[in-house]
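=== Per-residue structure ===
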Amino acid sequence: MRMAAAVTTSRAFLYSHHYHSLPFFLPSFFTASRVPRFHTRSPILLSAVKCLHSSSRRQNVVDILEERGLLESLTSEQLRHACSDPSIPPLKVYCGFDPTAESLHLGNLLGLIVLSWFQRCGHQTVALIGGATARVGDPSGKSLERPELDLETLSRNTSGITNTIGKILGSSGVSILNNYDWWKEVRLLDFLKDVGRFARVGSMMAKESVKKRLESEQGMSYTEFTYQLLQGYDFLYLFRNEGTNVQIGGSDQWGNITAGTELIRKILRADDAAYGLTFRLLLKSDGTKFGKSEDGAIWLSPSMLSPYKFYQYFFSVSDADVVRFLKILTFLDMNDIKQIESDMNRPGYLPNTAQRRLAEEVTRFVHGQDGLDEALKATEALRPGADTKLDWNTMQVISEDVPSCSFPYHQVLDLSVVDLSVSSGLLDSKSAARRLLKQGGLYLNNSRVDSENKRIESQDIVDGKLLLLSAGKKNKVLVRISSSS
């Protein structure tokens, strides 16, 4: 009873002595009953309140991230303690995603993975769509100001990203919010009076993302300069209204995250109550960014990149990177990963076994089991010499990922495979086709062509519509067959 009385008194003090003086931050629904979400100057107010439903220590998500090579920085080591202390209720963690494209890409994947790790360790998670902040553009890591997006594009991008996050994390209960829902009501003068006066220009200019841009020829617009304050206010809003006390982001988000923890400390006078955690950016062993292919970004939406092509991207990871990516991009037990690493150094190791496991795990996380099954079926169907019988549905799955051409049925029927391989653009000349055939590298529908006299028969044409020609393992052409005129 004494504990409950003390907590009630602290809540009443917080409300009556501070929050009533901030009309801009107190919407009509904000009452003293919502104050229990706040923390005091002590490490965490609720550390004194026993979490009745938890009798054992939670897995410490910070330790897990650190062991797997994901952790970059913490704003306070107190966060590590809060992650495992059974007397502290689960944390509420958010990660922001600006809708600058219709889909998230591989660079955003770590944010989803870290959110998922928090979920798996018993914490609550929020994915924040930056419907408002995307109109400004985050300057972090950018050498040029982002192009302005029109409202129709922003709406379409927001819908696409919301659907992607929902499919990947939705089953585990993530909350998806849009910061435009509160920013649309904000008036500039109120914001400057109630928030801007707590921001120190010197500190804002000292942020790494700002310093780099100021030193460049392009400089930085005032609009971009305010971005860190806008993101900082998002954290303040979520802390106050949603009980969200941790923000996560890539290492390039450190300045934006600390802008939020500082606003919470100064405006709400809540010390050691809100935390930030950054994870390392996704880089290859040579220091270059991991997330671009020859064709551009690796999108997470199947409408922009098929599960097959997504799978193939991870299947092609180098041996120098694959173990590290297994640690940071999958949820495999560390002992299993160590075993995979050990197997790679043993005689008889089948090349790409580790890559295959990586591709399977990441594809399953992003596209679900159905997406993985589709990718595996397409992969097998495109493997020269495979026993998989090609069918129309499988060929349609791979059609966007393989060069194609079209011919009328009557032009293809009875045409030699050597001639077709040249006409389709698979090979440059008949001599090259004959040479490859003799070497055993020319395939029709994954079956090796053994004779120069082989001609296209009706039974070769899959469902009367398609042929697949292959020159070795990588070069392929899908031949579409149209009806005779």
Observations:
- The first strand starts at residue 71 and ends at 74.
- The CA atoms of residues 281 and 305 lie 22 Å apart.
- The two ends are 89 Å apart (CA to CA).
